[in-house]
Amino acid sequence: MTRSVLRTVVVTGVAALVLAGCGTPEAGAAATVGGRRISVADVQSATSDVQTLYGQNQPVSQRAVLYLLAAAPYIQEVATRRGAGTSPDEARRIFTQKDPKLTPSDAAVTVLQANGSLGKLDQLGPTATQEALSEVTKELAHDHLTVSPRYGTFDPQRGTLLPDQPNWLPTTATPSPTPSQ
């Protein structure tokens, strides 16, 4: 075998191995929950749209947006049962009231819809809000919310996404002894 043929075989084999991992349901997903896949693109477009709405003085985190995208169906279901749901049209109106030329992504509408419903639930009082959030958290845990490490981890005890704490630097309890000179 010549070097160029061998190089082609090796490169092709490596490419096949790399591409074999691309078919998983989580590829390109920021999170999965209950059979739904939330794409990184949806998180990014929703964050950008909501940031445009709120302005640069009120930062919008991708982690918060991802949580609302993951929890939105559960929030809507709980809020609707309690007469506190927000419709997609209400969420879109928030954008058009700010600027009639704004055309939010579907993901951004979902985020504002969930956020609006949480706001309405909050008006029902702290007990109702806590019960609703507890129910949403239980559903997210039941449906196995799995988050890409890029966005953190889901904490079912707190009902939130916590920042990822990568443990890539080794830690020691005591410093290593230094050799005597």
Globular, elongated, flat, extended or rod-shaped: what is the shape?
globular
Beta percentage is 5-15%
- What is the typical, i.e. mean, pLDDT? 82
N- to C-terminal distance: 56 Å
- Helices and strands, in order, run as HEEHHHHHEEE
Low-confidence segments: 1-25
Share in helix: 40-55%
Which structural class matches the secondary elements? Answer: mainly alpha
Description:
- By secondary structure, the protein is mostly helical.
- The chain is built from six helices and five strands.
- The chain has helices at residues 3-20, 40-54, 62-81, 88-98, 106-122, 126-142; strands at residues 29-33, 36-39, 146-147, 153-155, 160-162.
- The strands form two sheets. Strands 2-1-3 form a three-stranded antiparallel sheet. It has a two-stranded antiparallel ribbon with strand order 4-5.
- Strand 4 (153-155) and strand 5 (160-162) form a beta hairpin.
- The chain is globular and about 40 Å long.
Which helices and strands appear, and what pairs or packs with what?
Elements: H1 3-20, E1 29-33, E2 36-39, H2 40-54, H3 62-81, H4 88-98, H5 106-122, H6 126-142, E3 146-147, E4 153-155, E5 160-162
Antiparallel strand pairs: 1-2, 1-3, 4-5
Helix pairs in contact: 2-3, 2-5, 3-5, 3-6, 4-5
Describe the structure concisely for a colleague.
The chain has 181 residues and is mainly alpha-helical.
